[in-house]
Amino acid sequence: MKNIKVIFVMILVSLIYGCTETPLLTITKQDVGMVLQPISQSNIIDSRAEFRQLFCAINDDHGETLPDYQDCNVSLHKLSDEPEPVNKPKEPHNSSFQHKLKILLVPGIFGECLIDEVSPFSYAIEHLQKAYKIDISVLPGIRGRASSKHNSAIIHDFIKKLDNKKQDEKLILVGYSKGTTDLLYYLSVNEYKSSWDNIDALVGIAGVVNGTPLADDANSFLKKLAEIFPFDKCPTQQGESGIEDITRENQLFRLSKQKLPESIQYFSLAPYVNENNISSIMNTSYQRLSLVDPRNDGQVIYYDAIIPGSHLLGYANADHWAIALPFSRHIDSLSFINKTIAKQSDKNAYPREVLLESIVRFVDMKLVENK
C-alpha cells in the first residue's frame, strides 16, 4: 500500500509540474507595499565576510575530519557585493564557548513525517553535543503538516516551561524552512510575550520568511502533497494547513503588521545554489520557482529567506534539503519511502557539521559583543 502511495505522489508531481507554465503569483486583496533593494540599503546587518572567515577557519581546522568535506568557498556562495574581510576570526579549535548555550531547532514542513529516520541536522547536532557538550536538540511536538498557529502554541508552551536560565546561559532558537515561519508567527502573538524574555537569539536557515511562491501556485502542488503525503505518523490537521502559512500572500501580510522583539538578536543563513547543484528530486520545483526567480534552492528564493533586521550570515550553496537533511548519510538503512527520496537526492552531500558549528559560534560571539 505504501509503495502505491509513493508511486501516486511521484505521478502527481509529474502531472502538476508538467502543466502549462501558469503564473505562481496572482493579485490578491492582501497585497502589501514592498521594495527590493541591495543589502547595503536595507536594515540587514551584512555579516557575510565575518561569517565566511569563521566558517573557513573551522573548515580548515577540522573540516576534513568530518563527512562531506568541501572547500569553504564552494559551500558558501559569494555574491558580487560581499564585503572583503577586515579582521581575522578567533581560532576555532578552542573548544570553549563564551556562554552556556541551550539550542532548540524547529524543523520544517513534513519534518515530523521524516524525523525518525532523517532528522534535520542530526549528525551536526551530534557533533556539537559530543565535541563541545552543547545542549542542542530538536524542539519536540512540532506537527509536520500543522499551521504556524498550532505550532507556535507548542513552541510557547515548551519555552515557558524551561527552568529559569542561569546568568550565563543563552537560549538560541533555530528555524529550518517553515520552522522559521512558525517561530516568526510565535513572536507575533502578544499572549506569548511571557516566554519571549527567555530567548536571546533566533536563527533562520533557508527560512520561509517572506513565503514561497510555490505555496501560492495556482496548481497547488504543495497543498495536494500535504493532503496525501503517505505517512501515518504525521497525520493531517483538521481544518488547517501549514501550506497556507508559507504563501507569499499570507506571510508578507503578517510581516507588514509585525514588530519583532528588540530583546532578541536575529540571524539568517539564506540559500543561493547553482542549478548544477540541485538534486534530481528538487529539479522540477526549482524550474517552477525559476519562473519567478532562478536564484532559489528548489523551495525558497534567496531574498525570501532573510529575517528583517537580522545578521545576514551568507548564502549556502546547497538545495533546500541538502542544507539540513542528511538523506545520503545512511541510505541503506532507510525505509522504502525515504530510500526512494534519498536516491533522488543525488546532490545531498554538504558539510552540515561545519555549517552548524559556525552558526553557533558566530551567534555566541555576537551575544558577547551586544551585551
Concise summary:
With 371 residues, the protein is an alpha/beta fold. The protein contains 15 helices and 8 strands.
Describe the structure using short key phrases:
371 residues; alpha/beta
Can you lay out the helices and strands and say which pair or pack?
Blueprint: H1 2-17, E1 45-46, H2 48-62, H3 72-75, E2 76-77, E3 100-106, H4 111-114, H5 122-132, E4 135-138, H6 148-160, E5 169-176, H7 178-186, H8 193-196, E6 201-205, H9 213-216, H10 221-228, H11 242-245, H12 248-256, E7 265-271, H13 280-289, E8 311-316, H14 336-344, H15 352-369
Task: Explain what this protein looks like in three dimensions.
The chain is an alpha/beta fold. It has one domain (2-21, 52-369): Alpha/Beta hydrolase fold, catalytic domain (Rossmann fold). The chain is 37% helix and 11% strand. The protein has 15 helices and 8 strands. The protein has helices at 2-17, 48-62, 72-75, 111-114, 122-132, 148-160, 178-186, 193-196, 213-216, 221-228, 242-245, 248-256, 280-289, 336-344, 352-369; strands spanning 45-46, 76-77, 100-106, 135-138, 169-176, 201-205, 265-271, 311-316. Strands 1, 2, 3, 4, 5, 6, 7 and 8 form an 8-stranded mixed sheet that branches. Strand 7 (265-271), helix 13 (280-289) and strand 8 (311-316) form a beta-alpha-beta unit. The radius of gyration is 20 Å and the shape is globular.
